[in-house]
Design goal:
The protein contains seven helices and five strands. By secondary structure, it is α+β, with helices and mostly antiparallel strands.
Amino acid sequence: MKKLVLSTAALAVFLTGCAGMTDTQRNTGIGAGAGALGGAAIGAVTGGRAGTGAVIGAGVGALGGYLWSQRMENQKREMEAATRGTGINVTQTANNELKLAIPSDVSFDTGRSAIKPNFAPVLNQFANGLRNNPNAEVRIIGHTDSTGSDAINNPLSVDRAASTRDYLIARGVPSTAFRIEGRGSREPVADNGSDAGRAQNRRVEIYVGERQG
């Protein structure tokens, strides 16, 4: 247990030292540090040596997630510029994925999976960044509001994700980069009791992660 406490303190010192690092160095380093702490915990709990566990954990922490490279940072900034004023939310996730949350007033009409005209320019810009990143892994998740039954909503959510994927593939992004999912109405982000809430729930979310080449 003393070794685990020491490892926690060491990680805190490390994180303090991250202040002078670049974004890429900081995110990769934090992943390794968190992995080291996890490894130390495993070693302490199982009766092994915490130091050995920390070394193993550091490798897992550095390799288990995605990289946040300068290329990813550039794409985030480009998408922030391309989506300004549209209602699309562009963020970096805790797992170093670039996330685009696209509401229905930009993406899809009620009960439809066709790409709306004002969604196309955003996807065009997005495709440019993906074509320049051969190590990108893309997840597209479709959602619906609660109008209608699961028998309608579940396939509709998949169709929305598929339409987004197909649009990007048509603009030169390799089909092997994609994985799609449909969540139906199961994961609302707003109250389905209002028109405004249902509009937020009819959405598509795109996640991009970069693996080390």
